[in-house]
């Protein structure tokens, strides 16, 4: 299994697309291009408890969702390391709601309305 780099995901010009909502998480699918030119998919979650008043649309530019892509890549790398004897296995993806200090404004995509709506 080859894991994409954050650079491959961030440089992509292909929009990140909403895939599904499951277990209080919004799953998005990012398309990236490998060195050999092959297109691959990478899915990552966004915990709904983190979203506050943010607007999550069916499509986003990859750079807008880099934070969650990076956190999920780190989770995958820790899981693989644990599977190979490098530490305790993580039983669940990281709790993204704990990443933001309490009382701070949402640092996600925080627009009160979708573009074009007043």
What would you note in describing this structure?
- Strand 1 (16-22) and strand 2 form a beta hairpin.
- The chain has a four-stranded antiparallel β-sheet with strand order 3-2-1-4.
- It has helices spanning 6-11, 66-83; strands at residues 16-22, 25-33, 39-47, 59-60.
- The protein is globular and about 40 Å long.
- The longest helix has 18 residues, at 66-83.
- With 118 residues, it is an alpha+beta fold.
- The protein has a domain at 6-85.
List keywords for this structure.
118 residues; alpha+beta; four-stranded antiparallel β-sheet; globular
Provide a concise account of the structure shown.
The chain has two helices and four strands. The chain has 118 residues and is an alpha+beta fold.
Please describe the biggest sheet, giving its number of strands, its sense, and whether it closes into a barrel.
Answer: 4 strands, antiparallel
Q: Indicate the low-confidence ranges by residue numbers.
A: 101-107, 109-113
> On the 0-100 scale, what is the average pLDDT?
78
Number of helices: 2
Terminus-to-terminus distance: 45 Å
Strand order of the largest sheet: 3-2-1-4
Helix content: 10-25%
Q: Characterize the overall form.
A: globular
Query: Beta-strand percentage?
Result: 15-25%
């Amino acid at each position: 299994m080859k894991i994409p780099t954050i650079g491959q995901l961030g440089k992509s010009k292909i929009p990140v697309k909403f895939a599904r909502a499951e277990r209080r998480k919004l799953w998005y699918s990012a398309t990236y291009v490998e060195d050999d030119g092959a297109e691959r998919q990478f899915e990552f979650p966004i915990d709904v408890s983190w979203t506050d008043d943010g607007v999550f649309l069916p499509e986003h530019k990859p750079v807008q969702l880099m934070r969650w892509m990076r956190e999920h890549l780190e989770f995958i790398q820790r899981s693989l390391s644990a599977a190979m004897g490098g530490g305790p296995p993580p039983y669940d993806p990281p709790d993204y709601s704990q990443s933001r200090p309490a009382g701070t404004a949402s640092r996600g995509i925080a627009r009160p309305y979708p573009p074009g709506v007043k």
